[in-house]
């Protein structure tokens, strides 16, 4: 599982660099973890995770 998160983090880092829309290191770690099956991110800041491939978000507001 840890290897999956690390690989997903690397993929997301490449994606945001290609988009020209950098994200915070912590946001990318959270997003990589959320790419595991059945692990959406519950957040009030969906903007931080928009356009990240394979990442589902749920707003808590």
Helix-strand blueprint:
Elements lengths: L1 H18 L5 H10 L6 E3 L13 E3 L2
Parallel strand pairs: 1-2
Helix pairs in contact: 1-2
Structure write-up:
The structure is a single chain. The protein has a single domain (2-59), classed as 3-Layer(aba) Sandwich (Rossmann fold). The protein contains two helices and two strands. It has helices spanning 2-19, 25-34; strands spanning 41-43, 57-59. The protein has a two-stranded parallel ribbon with strand order 1-2.
The overall average pLDDT, rounded, is: 88
Q: How many domains in all?
A: 1
Strand order of the largest sheet: 1-2
Please report the number of helical segments. 2
Spans with pLDDT under 50 lasting ≥5 residues? none
CATH architecture: 3-Layer(aba) Sandwich
The biggest beta sheet is recorded as: 2 strands, parallel
Helix content range: 40-55%
Shape: globular
The ordered string of helix (H) and strand (E) elements is HHEE
Please provide the count of β strands. Answer: 2
> What portion of the residues fall into strands of 2 or more residues?
5-15%
- Name the CATH superfamily classification: 5'-nuclease
The separation of the N and C termini measures: 30 Å
Structural class by sheet pairing and helices: mainly alpha
Rg is: 11 Å
Supply the CATH class: Alpha Beta
CATH topology name: Rossmann fold
């Amino acid at each position: 599982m840890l290897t999956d998160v690390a690989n997903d983090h690397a993929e997301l880092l490449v994606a945001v660099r290609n988009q020209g829309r950098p994200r915070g290191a912590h946001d990318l770690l959270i997003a990589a973890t959320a790419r595991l099956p059945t692990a959406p991110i519950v957040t009030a800041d969906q903007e931080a995770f928009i356009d990240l491939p394979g990442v589902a978000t749920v707003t808590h507001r």
